[in-house]
Design goal:
The protein is an alpha/beta fold and about 240 residues long. It folds into two domains: about 5-180, SPOUT methyltransferase, trefoil knot domain (Alpha/beta knot), CATH 3.40.1280; about 190-240, Trp Operon Repressor, Chain A (Orthogonal Bundle), CATH 1.10.1270. The chain has eleven helices and nine strands. α4 packs parallel to α7 (about 135-140) and α6 (about 110-115) crosses α8.
């Protein structure tokens, strides 16, 4: 591995009105260790700090009428300007500003690999009835969706992006073979089924769930063939 690859790191900036939601997830397991090793630099910003009113509101009623409130463009603009995201967005692979949005393009393994090449990702989290369209049109470089459904806000999608992208930064995972062999190493490919001890599990009398004999054979070629045969398809489920 080259020196450049060994020293690759990435910075994430997350803009949200609920910064407290991120501490538990970003402060545990792989992401915590990667931050301690200075491979990741994760900064969560409270968007309310850039409100221009004494009540720190960042939303208002939608033009044209309709239910709920819409997050305003102003706080996002001032925040991005202050954290210098706008100043570096046009440099090659420097900064990418992403709005988490139900109408964005699907976030896939391929997208995670692409985004891992950037030095900095800025994730914008919406709430309420949505975000002023001028944020998507003038401030964000792209919109991403983590699935064909609607969640309460952009916080969970932002966590998903940080986690998935971070796995492609060299040395974030302790065992790089784990990355090479996991569920989506290429578009449309799924990992083979995995088993662990015990060899036979009996949830109730008369019922046994067994490990496939191929995995117990000790024959590496037989095991590899079994895994290849079952990669990319979902094993049958037995709900008995």
């Amino acid at each position: 591995m080259s020196k450049a690859a060994r020293t690759k790191k990435i910075r994430f900036d997350v803009l949200t009105i609920f910064p407290e939601m991120f501490a538990g997830y970003f402060g545990a397991s792989i992401l915590k260790r990667a931050q301690e090793k200075k491979l990741l630099d994760i900064r969560v910003h409270n968007l309310r700090d850039w409100a221009d009113n004494k009540h720190h509101r960042v939303d208002d009623k939608p033009y044209g009428g309709g239910p709920g409130m819409v997050m305003q463009v102003g706080p996002f603009y001032r925040a991005l300007k202050d954290i210098k995201a706008l100043a570096t967005r046009h440099s090659p692979l420097a900064t990418r500003i992403i709005l988490m949005s139900a109408k964005g393009k699907p976030f896939t393994h391929k997208e995670a690999v692409r985004l891992a090449k950037y030095d900095r990702l800025v994730l914008l989290c919406g709430r309420y009835e949505g975000v002023d369209e001028r944020v998507a049109k003038y401030l964000a470089d792209e919109e991403l969706s983590v699935g064909p459904y609607v969640v309460t806000g952009g916080e969970l999608p932002a966590m998903t992006v940080v986690d998935a992208v971070s796995r492609h930064i060299p040395s974030v995972l302790g065992d790089q073979e784990s990355l090479a062999a996991e569920s989506h190493t290429e578009e449309g490919f799924t990992e083979y089924p995995q088993y662990s001890r015990p060899e036979v599990f009996s949830p109730k009398k008369g019922t046994t769930w067994k490990v496939p004999p191929e995995l117990l054979s000790g024959d590496h070629k037989r095991i590899a063939a079994w895994r290849r045969d079952r990669s990319g398809r979902t094993p049958p489920r037995h709900n008995k």
